[in-house]
Design a protein that fits this description.
By secondary structure, the chain is α/β, with parallel strands linked by helices. It has two domains: 64 residues, Urease, subunit C, domain 1 (Roll), CATH 2.30.40.10; 147 residues, Metal-dependent hydrolases (TIM Barrel). Helices cover 22% and strands 29% of the residues. The protein contains six helices and twelve strands. Strands 1, 2, 3, 4, 5 and 6 form a six-stranded mixed sheet that branches. Strands 7-8-9 form a three-stranded parallel sheet. It has a three-stranded parallel sheet with strand order 10-11-12. Strand 8, helix 3 and strand 9 form a beta-alpha-beta unit. The N terminus is likely disordered.
């Protein structure tokens, strides 16, 4: 079986610093198909041309035996420090979506995005949960809500903290949000033009939140 050396473009600080280069004779996975013995041209840090006849005007890198692919995404993490972003970047995971954490620290972690030493960090801030519900047991301050009327303010607070999307928790093995509150949160998120994803563990809850407009699910189970 042919072995490839993973060649993650943005991890090579010696290359990125140049910003203009061509990788020759590389095997490329473009997200849909594998293209062998091709070349990739980068200008000002952006891919501008792909093909076997791409010419190099500046730096040329031999990609023979190497495999070039888009950076991977981890769509559900709980990252507590910038070291987690470094570890992810080394593994070729260059985008992390945090689903519940400490809002005081998360904007600082997101600001590491301009360095190739760190994965890009996107976060929901504090997940929406009920008092005593899942997410409140980890020892850091977690805002909660119980009423439909609180949904708009909750979403506004997450956006003010820098959140890119809303995470909602529906977990019936603890205290949990009612479906009316969940729908109000989803609606409030959409008014603010951000996505709302919901942590669920029961099929019936999944069906209900999707009917109420949820953009995605987390922690799904078969039954």
């Amino acid at each position: 079986m042919k072995k490839y050396t993973f060649f993650i473009l943005v991890l090579l600080s010696s290359i990125v610093s140049a910003q203009d280069f061509v990788i020759k004779n590389v095997t490329l996975f473009d997200g849909e198909s594998i293209i062998e013995n091709t070349s990739v041209k980068v200008e000002d840090g952006l891919i501008t041309e792909i093909g076997p006849t791409v010419s190099a005007t500046t730096k040329e890198i031999d990609g023979t035996g190497k495999f070039l692919m888009p950076a991977m995404i981890n769509s559900h993490v709980h990252a507590w420090a910038p070291t987690a972003l470094t570890e992810a970047a080394k593994a070729g995971v260059l985008n992390l979506l945090d689903m519940h954490g400490v809002e005081q620290f998360q904007p600082m972690m997101a600001n590491t995005k301009d360095s190739t030493s760190y994965a890009r960090f996107y976060f929901a801030g504090a997940a929406a949960t009920a008092p005593g519900g899942h997410g409140t047991q980890y020892g850091f301050p977690t805002p909660t809500l119980t009423k439909v009327e609180e949904a708009q303010g909750f979403v506004a607070d997450r956006i003010a903290a820098g959140a890119s999307y809303l995470k909602i928790i529906v977990e019936p093995w603890k205290e949990t949000l009612s479906q009316d509150v969940v729908k109000a949160l989803i609606d409030a998120a959409h008014v603010k033009e951000i996505k709302a994803v919901v942590h669920i563990s029961k099929e019936a809850d999944a069906q209900k939140v999707l009917q109420n407009g949820a953009d995605g699910l987390a922690h799904t189970r078969k039954k």
